[in-house]
Specification:
Shape: flat
Largest sheet: 3 strands, antiparallel
Order of helices and strands: HHHHEHHEE
Strand order of the largest sheet: 1-2-3
Distance between the termini: 68 Å
């Protein structure tokens, strides 16, 4: 019979307590923050284009508080810390840009060139975005923001819009046998409309 080792038992108990204390679904929390950050950017674009009467400052402050909470989570892994650092950098860049543009607008100054601010490049929704089996988040965001800027913003949120595009992609591929689908924004009657076109066929070019 193996000899009982109290140190081994203590170590196992300590590891069990640590595992129990570690917050669950941390990846989901970071993903939710990322989705809310994308949505905040869209809401500001709506404000700057006249679709909203007031800037979404309350949501920006809520995200700022949520970022502080995420920073205080115990036992962040190196991967989680890296991802959180990236989200924090994006939030700070967007926040600085938004506040400057709001200030310029309130003071009647011409908005400064967007190129002067550190913003992410998005896929070109007007030129067309080609996808195969799924839609990358930046593609969904580009199409959503493009519609918002053109005065045709969907009446549902970013997540719902992404699911809608996914359903359209699947439906078009099933009906046409297309291997890829191009989504793009096309102007019609003074408004931007979402268009989808099948490209190629499975097993072919």
């Amino acid at each position: 019979m193996a000899q009982y080792d109290p140190r081994s038992s203590y170590k196992a108990q300590r590891e069990a307590r640590a595992a129990a204390a570690k917050p669950k679904n941390r990846d989901a929390e970071l993903s939710r923050f990322e989705t809310r950050l994308r949505q905040l950017r869209i809401e500001y674009e709506k404000f700057f284009n006249g679709a909203l009467l007031v800037p979404p400052e309350e949501e920006r402050l809520n995200l700022q508080a949520e970022l502080r909470r995420l920073r205080q989570l115990p036992q962040l892994t190196s991967v989680e810390s890296f991802r959180l650092n990236g989200l924090e950098a994006r939030f700070n860049s967007f926040s600085e840009l938004f506040q400057r543009r709001v200030r310029d607008r309130e003071e009647g100054r011409t908005p400064r060139a967007a190129a002067a601010a550190p913003v992410e490049e998005r896929p070109d929704a007007r030129a067309g975005i080609v996808v195969d089996s799924s839609l990358p988040p930046d593609a969904v965001e580009a199409l959503y923001v493009g519609l918002a800027q053109g005065g045709s913003a969907p009446k549902f949120d970013l997540d719902s819009f992404g699911r809608y595009l996914g359903q359209q992609l699947s439906s078009i591929q099933q009906k046409t046998g297309a291997s890829r689908v191009q989504f793009r924004l096309q102007e019609k009657d003074g408004k931007l409309r979402l268009k989808a076109k099948p490209i190629g066929r499975r097993g072919g070019s």
